[in-house]
Amino acid sequence: MADHPARTDPPASHVTYADLEPVDHKYLLCGLADGGVTIYDTTLLRVDDYFFREVGSIKGGQRGTHKYPVDCVQWYPADAGLFSTSSRDKKVKIWDPNRMKLVDQFSIDCHVHHHQMSPVATKHSLLAVAGDSGEVILCDLRTGTSTHRLQGHEGAVKATHWSPRIQHLLLSSGQDHTVRMWDVRASRAFLMALDPDTHASEGHRKVSKRMKKVPQAHKSQVVSLSFTHDGLWILTFDCTGKLKLWDSSTGKKKDVNYGGFPHQCKRSVRMAVTPSMYPDLVFLPSKDQVCVLEIFTGHVVNVLERHFAPLYGVIYNPSTMHLYTFSSDHNFITWIPKRFGPKHWEESYTDEPGPNKRKRVTQDNWSSDEN
User: Fold this and answer.
1) Predicted local confidence at residue 338, as pLDDT
2) Rounded (5°) CA angle 335-326-17
3) How far apart are CA 22 and CA 359, in angstroms?
4) Can you give the pTM of this predicted structure?
C-alpha cells in the first residue's frame, strides 16, 4: 500500500489506542501506555523524516491523567471541541483539546474496557461504557451522571458500538461470546442477540424468558465489532481469528468465507472499514499484520507487514486514504497509497476485462511494497 510508511514523532510512551477526528479527518488522538494522550496534525507531515507534528499532549503522571494505560480514546463526534479517554482505573475522562485540560470525568464502579459516543445522535448525548461488571453503563455528557445500565452479559463487556444510521441503536460484545443489540430509549432495552443459527425465514429471534441461554455469536471472546458505514451490516471478530458478517436488521449471519486470521491479543482491538468505496473493504488486525479484505466476498486484497508484535488497532482516513496502525511493538505506522500515473491506469484497465480489472487496480493501490 505504501511508498513509505510514515510515523508519528515517538512519544515518551507507546500508543495503546487512537482515534481520528471525524469531521475534517485532520487530528489524530493517541492514548498512551503511561496514561497520557497526544494529538497529531495529519496534514503537517515533515517530508524529510515522515513524522507527523505534535500539536498537543498531556504526559502521563500529570494531574488528571489516568493511573494505568489508556484503553480507549474518542473525539466528540460533532466536532473537535472535546475528546474522551478511559482506562482500567475506573475513570472515563472528558478533555478540552484547545487547553489540554480535564473538564469532567465519570467514576465507574468497575474496570472500563471500552467506551463510545454515537456518531449521529441529535436527541441524546450518551456515552456507552463497556464494564468489567457485565453491564453497559450509559453516561450522559449533558448532566454528568450515569443514566442507566444495560444488564445481561455474563462476564466483562469488551466493546460497544453505536449504529451510524439509527441514533438509539447500540451493540455490545462480551466475554460470554455474545453480541447484543439494545434500544437505549426503551425500559426493556434488549432487542436481540446475534445468532449464527438464525435462518432467513425466521428473521431476528428475541430472547424470551423460556430460553435458558442467550445465543452465542462466536465460540470465543469477541474482541472487535463494527458497523459498515451505512449501518446495514455488522462485522464481528473473535480472539481465535474468526470474522463474521451479519444483517443488522435481522441478526442473520451472511455466508461469507473469510478464512481464519490468527490473533494473539485478548484485549479489545480496533478494525477499520472504508466508507463509500467500491468494493467495501475491512482492515483487520491479525497478529503483527493487517489483512485487507473485501467485506461481501471475503477476497483477500492484501496483507500489510511492518509490525513485529500483535496489533492493537487500525484507523482508515477517508480524506487521504491513509491507514494508521498501532501495535504492542511500540510502533505507530502510517501507510500511504501509491501514486499511479496515466500509463499505469491505462494498462490496468486494458490488460484484464470484467471484474478482474477492478480487483487488480484495488490490489495495486493497497500494495505494501515500499519501493
Assistant:
1) 76
2) 130
3) 28
4) 0.86
